[in-house]
Amino acid sequence: MTVAVIRFGGSNCDRDAVRALEHLGVEADIVWHEDGLPADPSGVVIPGGFSYGDYLRAGAMAARSPIMAEVREVADEGTPVLGVCNGAQIGSESGLTPGAFTTNRSARFQCEHVHCRVERADTPFTSVFDEGDVIRLPIAHGEGRFEIADDRYDDLVAENRVLFRYCDADGEVTDAANPNGSKGNVAGVLGERESVAVLMPHPERATLPDLHAGTDGQGLLRAFA
Q: CA end-to-end span of the chain, whole Å?
């Protein structure tokens, strides 16, 4: 079986995701969103980019593509689904995960490396880490600020569905370590199933050693191996 990496008009990290997965020995193919998912995919990646030019809201139009109904179906069956950056926006807009991603506190596009603390180590995406581990990943987004109503945030925390938080190199969750103003320094969250996750940092850009950006992203992508 093959991991399906969904391509929308405006996706620009789909080939990066495929190359990163193949580096780990995972078979992966790009799937054009209008063609639908292949039968029985072993996983689904919703990659970064600017689907539909980020018109209306980032991810809002792609979330209404018919393929996302198929993604929700396979997610309900336990198939690993990972949304990255624009894929995280699409995931939240389609209801795969709670909350929303909106304009950065700086009101600017930000491209830099950040530190993230692993909040859950018992999911497919974090099983190679220990709770509290600090990993370094790149971000590249203008609308990465995670927002959610206070009561729903309390539920998210109570249900232990925060996967990563922005932190400093020592693992301290501080405002200074929060690159975009995300509520609670949230960098990644889980869906109702632990096999569904979205995050703003790019693990595929921290997987290949020859990119000299570190390899901490390998751990997340090994969920598909």
A: 11
